[in-house]
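Incident log entry.

Two folding requests arrived from the same account within the same minute. Monitoring flagged them as a possible duplicate submission, but the sequences differ. Recording both here for audit purposes.

Request one:
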Amino acid sequence: MKKEKVPIEENVDIELEYKLLHLYDKIKPYIKFIIGAFLAFILAIVGYIYYKNKQNQYYQQASLYVLKIKNELESWKIKEAKKDIKFFKANYADTPYMKLVYGYELTLAKKGKEKKDLYELSSQLKDSLSTDQMKGYITEYQASLDYNNGKYNDALAKLEKIDQSHFNYLSALTLKGFILKKEGKDVKAKEVFKEVQEFSKGKFRYFEQIAKNNLQ
């Protein structure tokens, strides 16, 4: 009689099966913990995806409101713009678009009939900016507010913070010259306007012409 063969399936790696069974015996006491950790991991991924989707929707809604405010300002719909700015500040103040809204609010205050605290509004905008270049522009604007209010020393102190690394250095330097001239410090004013002339020569005709006019 022929001996019956052990019913082993073809292409089965017996050693691999043994290793898997051995591994299962080792992890069997911890199987509930492993399954729980795996489920927690899956839930964390699902939660993260849900959070990102909600966040994207939140930012999209904020961007639509910013566009709405922009269109209202361009159409000079003042009441609507004020209402939407107020709503945006109450609901989307933590979005990156807040700096734009501060800018729109400042523009509205400058052009509107109401006398708002432009210094405070510009400070809010400045605090929301992340680059020294843009902050330098607001610093110059605040210096111009000081100049218009006769606070020449405050204006000069602000302008001293703007150096050649700032894109608005030339305009800030020109304002400095006007302030010194207004104070009657003609010698210092001419020194500043000479610097403006040299700095703008052949590149910025507008400032070059201003310097020439003030050096005559």
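Request two (distinct sequence, not a duplicate):
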Amino acid sequence: MPRKTSADCPRHLFRILSRSVTPILLICILCVFAYFAKGVTGAASAIVFNAGLLTALALGLSGGLTLLEGLYWIALADCFASGLLGAILWRRLKLEKVTVLMLAGMLPLTVVFTLLLPTLDLRWLSLVLALAVIGGGVYLAMRRDLPPASATTINRWAVPTGAMAGVLGGLFGMGGPVVFILLSRASDDPGVFRSRTIIITNAAGMVRLIALALTGVYTSEHLTWFGIALPVVIASLLAGMWAHHRIKPKSFRIALGALVTLAGIGGLLRFALS
């Protein structure tokens, strides 16, 4: 019998890890990072979850969880988490013209691309997702703090910006980076920014979830996963909200953006090698 060398040890450990990972275990691990980030920043949960999913798929540690199943599940969980965040902060929410205009451009395309999702080629879908994740990560890490633009300028760009966010939102549930680019120029008040993003993510998330449900993609297994992961989602979201006042947002955003970008690059490598 041949003796094991030191080079065989990492491979043996990797095989053990790949056999021990299950879909629900992976989902719970990703939820810790995704919803802690959402609690701290008010968004970015889908970006973090999708980045982690791409990494797990690239390393063969997905436990059998497919890209589509992950995208379906995060739509369910994110809709709940956004609703919970909105319920906690409902007194600070205010419907404004820029929000209405952005939703007018965003919601129809969210529905269209959500309905297209089950028909798309998974290999090319993973490429688009990897590029979108890299874009979201670069935006998070490199975003500059610029002075607010005029209300006229913001309103003029609200509908086309919403439309672009609707494409990414419908496919991956992560229209946030596009929305943030405009809303970050609309006001320098963090409270106003969070209020607008919560309204938009709640509306878009609900529309996307309904569209997916109507196509019949959800099974009892998806609902079981959601029930098991729900305590993790809630605990991570509340932990992030608690940490919001104790972590410097800029430092956290840069670190998060760097990690997300690396995960997107991993997704590109997976596409190239597949």
